[in-house]
Amino acid sequence: MLAFNVIAYFTPEEEHEFYSQLRRIVKRGGFLAVSHSNMLFDFFSLNRYTLQFFQNHLVLGGQYAAAVESLLARTDLPAGDKALPLPVRENPLTYALKLKGYGFAETRQEFINRHEAPPPVLQQQTFPDTLAVPEHERWKLLFTCSQFASLTLRQ
To answer: What are 90's strand-pairing partners?
Structure first.
């Protein structure tokens, strides 16, 4: 089963139903390949998503929100249609745990849409190859890639 650039548009309820149905229809030993928006990219993007990431996942206590926002120069970006966050974003470090709850085991994870610098400072966006990144440098992809893909096996 393939689901590329789909799940991010689901509501949390639709996402739960999607995985529940996959568990029902994918045979044991069958594969599921999905791609997701990478929640950890928000940490690298240095824009409104970075602020939201800190507020929602790292900073304990609302009293620090204004202080964190003051450290970021471009919380007005991205503007327009790109300012709408996708309902479902995944943390690649915890995604395997989520899959396990639906009867799947992640066998491989790869990253795509690599950014050479945070989006507010890029003049032109290119997406360098991620498969050629040396093993000792691959940890950087957790933060510099806006999407990741996962290959999973139905248990």
So the answer is: 38
Across the strands, what pairs with 106?
Answer: 152
Q: What is the pTM of this model?
A: 0.86
Q: What is the pLDDT of residues 122-151, one digit of tens each?
A: 888 888 899 999 999 999 999 999 999 999
Distance in angstroms (rounded) separating the CA atoms of residues 50 and 68: 10
Name the nearest CA neighbour of 149 among 48, 36, 70, 63.
36
Q: Kindly write down the DSSP assignment for every residue of 34-72, as one continuous string.
A: EEEEBTTHHHHH-SHHHHHHIIIII--SGGGHHHHHHH-
Separation CA 37–CA 95 (nearest Å): 12
Closest listed residue to residue 94, CA positions, set 153, 36, 7, 47: 36
For residue 95, give the 3-state DSSP assignment.
Answer: helix
